[in-house]
């Protein structure tokens, strides 16, 4: 495969865009090489500007559950475009999409739409703090909730649970209100509650973590989080920007019995357009402006084109719930096949599947939290990634991302991927 045009495009981009990309993961920093510049997508395939074709397991990092250029979504977008791009005034399609969501999720009476997952989480945290009158929040190492200040935290020294900024430009005064706990470890959460000085407003968690590889929370862990929140009058927020409509139609609600007070959504609800949302019971949502005093706004929030794309997508999913069985069966076929291939090549590999989401670690034991995930053999991953890419399989360019199956990912594509993986695994062992 040649990459001449992409190399040229990357160099040009580099001169005017930091790192040549508008979101860091796209730069291929952790796997090396040049990112292919994309010309177009079609169903389960991506085509780059050198004319290479790839089986796409990234799906724009999750949103494209129907693959590229789904005809129903495309038609609804084109129809909406012809009526104007944005009005800054209410439209009925916002209510239609909100209704779909509140009817789908237990305990969610109202939602507000924003333009990204980052914005959804940032707004949800402000609402949780405004509602409870408390300042501290608990997050888990390895969970990603977007790039807002309070969430760019890393563990401090020793046994301290208060977070330190993980990026220059984030004031320590902000991150000191974010306490860090370990995923799937309830004792670490209890310690945060006892360390908190200002009181805990909320726990925010990806109930099916997809940003440190794919690591689902254990059910008993979620049950205990729920109990701790009840005991301390804190809100439990499930960040389902990735897992919503991906792990099941209703994200973690289709898998776990634990219900959060608030949920955040994104990715699939926009079907590839920029959308985020946060929702909760009416009592909480009524604290949001203009009904309540907690301020939140957006010029392009509830954009009619994005809402149309999302509405069409959710209606299609709801009308065909068996989609998830098909997607999960394909994801399992892919992961089981990969495990067998790794086994034959004497390479340690552990895999996980939740609905249309899949993850694998080059690791010898099960992975339950970020610390376990870091033991992944990143050198082997980089080689595997590069080998697969050069053979026409587009996997996430980091060991700490989740892979996605779309309805356009056919059984033949899975077979082709496994055929290629067998060659690549034997090359890199
Ligand atoms: C992607 C993601 C976000 C951030 O969404 P953006 O649209 O990239 O801002 C937040 N939380 C989770 C769980 C995500 O996967």
Give the helices and strands, then pairings.
Layout: H1 4-16, E1 38-42, E2 45-48, E3 53-56, H2 71-81, H3 92-104, E4 110-114, H4 117-132, E5 136-140, E6 153-154, E7 164-165, H5 172-175, E8 178-181, H6 186-195, E9 200-205, E10 208-209, E11 215-216, H7 219-232, E12 235-239, E13 262-265, E14 276-280, H8 282-285, H9 304-319, H10 323-344, E15 350-354, E16 357-361, H11 370-373, H12 378-390, E17 393-394, E18 403-404, H13 411-428
Parallel strand pairs: 3-17, 5-8, 5-9, 9-12, 12-13
Antiparallel strand pairs: 1-2, 2-3, 4-14, 6-7, 10-11, 13-14, 15-16, 16-18
Helix pairs in contact: 2-9, 3-9, 6-7, 10-13, 12-13
The structure holds pyridoxal-5'-phosphate (PLP).
Q: What does this entry look like structurally?
A:
With 429 residues, this protein is α/β, with parallel strands linked by helices. The chain folds into 2 domains: 4-57 and 322-428, Alpha-Beta Complex (Aspartate Aminotransferase, domain 1), CATH 3.90.1150.10; 71-319, Aspartate Aminotransferase, domain 2 (3-Layer(aba) Sandwich), CATH 3.40.640.10. It is 37% helix and 16% strand. The chain is built from 13 helices and 18 strands. The protein has a 7-stranded mixed sheet, with helices on both faces. It has a 4-stranded mixed sheet with strand order 1-2-3-17. Helix 2 (71-81) runs antiparallel to helix 9, helix 3 (92-104) runs parallel beside helix 9 and helix 6 packs parallel to helix 7. The longest helix is centred in the last third of the chain and has 22 residues, at 323-344. The chain is globular and about 55 Å long. The relative contact order is 0.16. The mean pLDDT is 96. It binds pyridoxal-5'-phosphate. Residues 116-118, 121, 144-146, 206, 210-211, 239, 241-242, 266, 276 line the site of pyridoxal-5'-phosphate.
